[in-house]
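Supplementary Methods, section 5.1.

A reviewer requested that the exact input to the structure prediction be made available. We therefore reproduce it here, unchanged from the version used in the analyses.
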Amino acid sequence: MSGQLLPTKWKYFVVGFVLALCILFVLGANRDNPGRYQVGAWGASGVGFGAFVTDTYSGETKIVYLNTGTEHEKNLGKPFTEIQAGGPF
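The structure derived from this sequence is encoded token-by-token as follows.
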């Protein structure tokens, strides 16, 4: 019975490997050129959480989402140029 499982396991492994390569190819993952915009996220237990976007050409960073309980900022879905620079910090 284990003789039949081995070809099945290899089949799923190969399919998964090819799928992973296709995803990397479609997303354009490469070390030399990470893309124009990079997304980062932060979180602190009990303090808050948020996300920011960095323009890798100009070095400008803008807050896309912020929730600290008292401070709220939501710029989801807006173009990078329309997001106000700075933020509460």
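The mean pLDDT is 75. These observations are discussed further in the main text.
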